[in-house]
Structure formats: structure tokens, C-alpha cells
């Protein structure tokens, strides 16, 4: 009729985590009980896409036991945020400006513009295997719009080399 808190005891059996809950002692014949359980499980990063619970109902007075298997999907939740900045923020090239073909000096290929991108995990979960693809327009027709000089990372990230990166080896 009312609600009662269960007394549950966690323990390990044969390498498996077990939680034993006492539902009633003694329990009247024909009694019906509904149990809501809230479990907090940590370390699910490497569990795959589901976790399985095996529930058993045992009675000391009856040889019959009931069991059920419950599979709960595991979904990681993490919010990613991408921030970007260009230094200088704006740049205007004169219409008559032309690069010096064959030169190996940076200033003969244009004004240096640095693009910085920061990828942040705002949580709550951890992430791995994240791929960030940046499309940088380096040509406008047959003319060089941006001369891509170098690509660098910090914080253990890996980058794939762009085929148009520093083609004149400046």
C-alpha cells in the first residue's frame, strides 16, 4: 500500500557486481510488489552501446525462481564548441597587387593571415575519435586567394596534410 525504501547491499560474486535487496520478510502469500530501482553506473566509456542487467527473484520458501534480462542502451553525451579567429581580423589587398612568382620570401606572396581554431568539449562526457574538417578556399578561379603555408596543432591532435600546403616551398 505504501512506499518503503529497500535495504540493498552491493557485493562481488564470481567477478560480477551483484546488488542484493531484501523485499520483505516475511511476505504474505499472493502479495504483489512493484520495485523501482535507480542505479548509478560509472566507467561506461568503454562499454559499447548497451549495458545488460540480469535480475533474479529468489524466495527462501519456494524452489521456483524468476529471472529477467534487461538491456539498456548507453549513449554518450558531450557538447562540442568550435571557436575561430583570424589575425588580422580584416585585410584589404590592392587590386593591382601581384605576387612574385618563384620568390621564396613570405612577403612576396602576400600579407600573413593566421587562422586559429579551438575545439572545446563542454561535457558532460569525454570524447575521442573526433574529426574536424576545415575547408579553406585557397584558389579563386586560377588565381591564388590564400597561400596555405603551414598547419599546426596543439593538445595531442593529428592533422592531415592539405595537398596545396606550401607548394612553392616558401
From TrEMBL:
Its main location: membrane. SUPFAM superfamilies: Integrin domains. It is found in: Membrane. One of its GO terms (cellular component) is integrin complex. Residues 3-74 form the Integrin alpha second immunoglobulin-like domain. It comes from the Eukaryota. Pfam families: Integrin_A_Ig_2 (PF20805), Integrin_A_Ig_3 (PF20806). The keyword Cell cycle does not apply. Keywords: Glycoprotein, Integrin, Membrane. GO terms for molecular function: integrin binding. It is a single-pass type I membrane protein. Residues 81-169 form the Integrin alpha third immunoglobulin-like domain. One of its GO terms (biological process) is angiogenesis. This is ITA2B protein. The gene is Itga2b.
Amino acid at each position: 500500500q505504501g512506499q518503503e525504501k529497500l535495504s540493498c547491499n552491493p557485493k562481488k560474486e564470481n567477478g560480477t557486481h551483484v546488488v542484493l535487496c531484501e523485499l520483505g520478510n516475511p511476505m504474505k502469500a499472493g502479495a504483489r510488489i512493484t520495485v523501482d530501482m535507480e542505479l548509478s553506473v560509472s566507467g561506461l566509456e568503454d562499454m559499447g552501446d548497451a549495458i545488460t542487467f540480469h535480475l533474479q527473484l529468489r524466495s527462501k520458501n519456494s524452489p521456483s525462481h524468476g529471472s529477467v534480462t534487461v538491456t539498456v542502451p548507453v549513449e554518450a553525451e558531450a557538447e562540442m564548441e568550435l571557436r575561430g579567429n583570424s589575425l588580422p581580423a580584416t585585410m584589404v589587398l590592392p587590386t593591382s597587387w601581384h605576387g612574385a612568382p618563384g620568390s621564396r620570401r613570405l612577403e612576396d606572396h602576400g600579407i600573413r593571415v593566421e587562422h586559429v581554431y579551438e575545439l572545446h568539449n563542454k561535457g558532460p562526457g569525454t570524447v575521442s575519435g573526433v574529426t574536424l574538417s576545415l575547408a579553406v578556399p585557397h584558389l579563386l578561379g586560377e588565381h591564388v586567394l590564400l597561400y596555405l603555408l603551414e598547419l599546426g596543432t596543439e593538445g595531442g591532435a593529428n592533422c592531415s596534410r592539405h595537398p596545396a600546403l606550401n607548394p612553392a616551398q616558401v
